[in-house]
Amino acid sequence: MRKLHVTVAAGFAAALFAAPAARADLQAVAKAMGTPQSLEISGSGLTYGIGQAYKAGMPWPRMNLVRYGRTDDYANGALGYDTTVVRADQLGGTAVPQRGEFRRAGGVAGDKAWIINYPVPDTVQAAAVPLQHDLWISPHGIVQAAMADKKMMDGPNFWVERAGKFKAKATVDGQNMVSRVESWMDNAVLGDMAVVTTYSEYKDFGGAKFPTRITQSAGGWPVLELTIADVKVNAGRVAAPAQIAAAPNDVKLDKAADGVWFVSGGSHNSVVIEMSNFVVLFEAPLGDGRANAVIKAVKDALPNKPIRFVVASHHHFDHSGGLRAAAAEGATIVLPEMSKAYFERAYAMPRTISPDSLAKSGKTAKFETYGDKHVISDGARTLELYLLKNSVHADGYVLGYLPKEKMIIQADSFSPRAPITQTPAFVNPATKTLWDNVEMHGLAVDTVLPLHGRMVKVDELKLEAGVR
Ligand SMILES: [Zn+2]
Fold it and tell me: What residues does CATH 3.60.15.10 cover in the chain?
């Protein structure tokens, strides 16, 4: 009896001097996995273009991840990456060309993020949240974040949350390794987008355990399948480059024709078409920020006419991310019938992490859809919309045509930047298909209003399409 009493008292004393039991569990996880200050990770596998499905609702297009290099610097809240990919799926979007390798690097340090575009290379400001998410949902990142936040475990799970950015739930396995992280991050189309990451086949890399197999899905489809070849522990730190060019985000309205404005100044353009008693906004790209800046410029230029319609060139997230902002203004979203169900499902998702204009307005988006062709007119000016056929870039992909002005509006098939003097050695099949569609419909064209790059005469398009 007495002996038992002593044992209980000793146990009680030990518990008093140790951390609470739940915290001790998290410490056991950290002890089992190791607590590196930084990790340099290399591998290869598959990556996918999120938001760039060929058709709305299809899986994201697949790319071979030829080289994957990444440094996680937990001590400095920083991450740097350098990746080289080659298309595996020919169909679908992304900046990866139809042929050849595509290299992209970048990183985040605190709230500063950057992208390094090759081959130039130039370093441009980027969005920090997706990379902060990636750092702090990594196996060591999430353990260190939870320890710093003095989190407790609930069975095999623990949570980490960054208000306005993301929240994540980690699960540990029987060996105290983080085996799964479910996280939610704001996305302009999908709202609180669900990300599921699995970590398996852990190995010891010089004092820290790291998974050699990583899979990740986002928005319901795979985004990453990685095989890790090597991990170096405390190999280096990540610091922001000294020179990061600001991402372009001005709103510039240039008159393209009477009643037609070309809206540039950012990475994605829009076109404003003035009708007798309303305005059509062709393209609301990126997200709430860009779209609201464009909407404000339109209202300043045409204060007495409501934006009645917002036309989506296609469903890719970088081009459709601002549609909700226009819907919050009362505009009806005009898109191909085949894409509507996807957007209706997406817009019904919760938006609690970073509620956008439409969520705050309490309104519901209205859609107007069409099959092969749609016309918006006030009797004097007409905008025709044609569903592009046979493009490798997207299905549910729209060509806008202003017959009176002899202008076409299109995204991604032709993005004129520096002028060219001859047809490139490899013609982008999407550019050729765009021209085939112009001819198929017998459209008389003088000017191209592209949704990336410069407004140009049609001869530049023909040169790039290899038909001149
Ligand atoms: Zn696209």
Answer: 249-465
Where in the chain are all domains bearing CATH 2.50.20.10? 20-233
Tell how far the Cα of 50 is from the centroid of ligand 1, in angstroms.
Answer: 11
Rounded Cα–Cα distance for residues 283 and 367 (Å): 14
Residue with tokens 């190791």: 34
Residues near 332 by beta carbon (within 8 Å), at least 6 away in sequence: 308, 309, 310, 366, 367, 368
Write out pLDDT tens, residues 160-189: 999 999 999 999 999 999 999 999 999 999
Report the separation in Å between the CA atom of 433 and the middle of ligand 1, taken as the mean of its atom positions: 14
pTM above 0.85, yes or no: yes
User: Is 3.40.640.10 the CATH classification of the domain at 249-465?
Assistant: no
450 Cα: distance to centroid of ligand 1 (angstroms): 12
Q: Give distance in angstroms: CA of 431 to centre of ligand 1.
A: 13
Spelled out in words, what is the top-level CATH class assigned to the domain 20-233?
mainly beta
93 C-alpha to center of ligand 1: Å? 5
> Which residues line ion ligand 1, judged by CB < 5 Å?
93, 316, 412
pLDDT digits (tens, 9 = 90+) for 336-367: 999 999 999 999 999 999 999 999 999 999 99
Q: How far is the CA of 294 from the centre of ligand 1 (A)?
A: 20
Q: What is residue 300's three-state secondary structure?
A: helix
For ligand 1, the distance from its centroid to the CA atom of residue 411, given in whole angstroms, is 7
Look up residue 326 and give its two tokens: 């226009």
